[in-house]
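Z., the sequence and structure:
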Amino acid sequence: MELRIDESTRQAREFVCGCCDTAAERTWADIRTHDATVAVYFASCYHHDGVHEVWIDAILGSWGRDDVDDHVTFGCRVGPVAGSPGPAATLVNGGEVAGTARSSAASSAARKG
């Protein structure tokens, strides 16, 4: 199965991080096969006290209908970790950072189909 980011659905916004009052950015878009949306991703870029990190949520499942029972969400954080010379990806709870913005945008994406 070939997947691609549907650039026509990409959105971005800047906001102020609630925990440290620094500028942050979030982008999201649909992930598609040749004929259907199969996922939505959210990438939230933070600069917490000079530490650069990205929190990524992916929601996989069927889109364009009211039933979301087959949706599965996972998340990861990419950034510095203790004992690693470079950034690493660590698994986190899906939606941990994006929260209601993720839910609202996912609902919007689901309505688009």
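The beta strands are 4-16, 23-32, 37-48, 51-60, 72-79, 88-92. The first strand starts at residue 4 and ends at 16.

Let me know what you think.
H.
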